[in-house]
Amino acid sequence: MTGASKQKQKLLRMEQIFKTQTDENNVLTGNELIDMLEKEGIKAERKTIYDDIATLNDSGITIETVKKGHSNAYFYACKEDFTAEELYILASAVSSCRFLTTKKSNELITKLQRITNKFTAAQLGRQIYVSQRSRNKSVNETIYYSINTIQNAIAKKKKITFKYYTYNTMKKRQLKHGGEQYLVSPNELVWENDNYYLTCVCHNHGAVCRYRVDRMTEVTMTDSKIAAFTEEEKKDLESFKSLFTMYGGERRELKLQFENSLMDVVIDRFGDNVECMKNSDDTFVIRCEVQLAPTFWGWLFQFGTKAKVLEPYDVCKKAQMLLNDLLDLY
To answer: What φ, ψ does residue 259 adopt, rounded to 5°?
Structure first.
C-alpha cells in the first residue's frame, strides 16, 4: 500500500487504536499516538493530531481528554459500546451455558474480545469458574442452526420436521421411534433449567408437546402453514411456560407447606408472584400449579421434613406411595 493510501486511512486507524488500545485507565498522549501511527507508515504531526481527534468527536466517536503528567492524553469513551462489566457478564454466561459446546463457547468469547480493548479482552479470556453441572456441556454442534430454523419457522408460521434422540445405556445416541420424523407446529422457544425447549403441537401425537432442542436433529422448515391453534391448544401451550418444569406429568394445583428458611428457594423456583401465606410461626404455605413429574418430586423431597404437600388429598397419598417405594429399595 502506498504512503498516500495509508494517509487516507489515518482517521480510521486512530479510531481503531483508541478503541483497542485505550480505556479510562490506559490513555495515550499525542506523542505516543504519533509513534504508533508512524510504525504503520502513517505520517502524523502534533498540530494535526488534535484536529483529527476533534474530527472523531464531531463524528460521534467520543475521545475523552485527561492529563498524563504535564501532557494531554486521550482514551476511547463511547457510551453506546458494552462496558467491561457488561462484557464480563456475557462471557460468564457463555462459559456456563450448558447448551453451548465448549468449542462454541470459546468462539463466542473470542468474538466478545474483538469488540473491546486489549485490557478488557485479556480479562474476558481468563478462566471463569463454573459449577460442575454447567461443565457438562452439550456435544450437539447443530443446536445453533436448529434454533435459527425454529425461530424462522415461528416468524413465518411454518411447520417443521425433525428427528429426536435419547441416550441408551451405552451412552450412545438413539433415535426415538426408529428414527421417525416428527412433524410439529412450533409455538415458542422456552429457556428452562439451562436448556432450550420447543413448545408445539405435535401432529404425530395429536397433542401439545415440548422437546429439548439439543436432542433434536435434522430440523427443517417445511412449506406447510401452521393452522390456527384451538383454544384448548392455546391454553395448554401457555401453561407450559408457567408450570414447574418442561417435563411431562399431570398438571395439578397444589397447596405446599415449607419451613420459613426455604422462602428464598421457593421464590427462586416459583417467582415472587406466587400465592403465599403464613401458616405458623415456623412455616408458610403456597398455592401453585405444577406437573406431577419425577423432577417435581425430586425437587420437593430434597428438603426432607422441611417441605410437604398439604392438598389435595390424592397427591398427598401419591407422595406417601413414592416415599414408601423408595424406602423399599433400602
So the answer is: -70, 150
